[in-house]
Design a protein that fits this description.
28% helix; single chain; 4 helices; alpha+beta; 162 residues; four-stranded antiparallel sheet
Length: 162
């Protein structure tokens, strides 16, 4: 089972190395990792995507909480939340295929960010399913290069009824 984990950490030298070392040292795989400062520049948020059963996740959480630099660990499993990924994809776009590529870009609300005589570089944001569907539709045109941020996540704001 896939888990998206948010880890608030003190923004200091070596914290990323210690956390990634914790995962690799115990044989856990990190499928995706993003790190950025929060509103407070002294604190960073890491969003880590990993796989494993509940026992493995519990072990990961306990080990993370033992690290001095870790402020809070949160697993989004079973909780309403928003996940997004940013993807830059360079696809072949010649005279015959440009119009069709642009139709796909429009349908997915993506954006062409660079144009050359033989390729478009396209930016898309969305959840994993949207990004994967976009890649699959562009694959027949010839994908030259892909760069991705990995997943980021945030809990949804509760909606209160009066």
């Amino acid at each position: 089972m896939r888990h998206t984990i948010s880890v608030l950490v003190i923004n200091e030298f070596g914290v990323l190395s210690r956390i990634s070392g914790l995962f690799s040292g115990r044989g856990f795989n990190i499928e995706s990792l993003t790190v950025a400062e929060t509103v407070d520049p002294k604190i960073s948020r890491m969003t880590i995507v990993t796989s494993g059963d509940e026992a493995i996740l519990e072990q990961i959480t306990k080990q993370l909480n033992k690290l001095v630099s870790v402020i809070k660990v949160h697993d989004f499993k079973g909780e309403p939340h928003i996940e997004r990924e940013l993807l830059l994809i360079k696809v072949t776009a010649n005279a015959e295929t440009r119009a069709e590529v642009l139709r796909i870009v429009d349908i997915f609300r993506a954006k062409v960010v660079d144009v050359s005589p033989r390729a478009y570089t396209i930016e898309i944001t969305g959840d994993e399913e949207k990004v994967e569907a976009f890649k699959e539709l562009l694959r027949p045109f010839g994908i030259k290069e892909i760069v991705s941020t990995g997943r980021i996540a945030m809990p949804r704001t509760p909606k209160h009824h009066k």
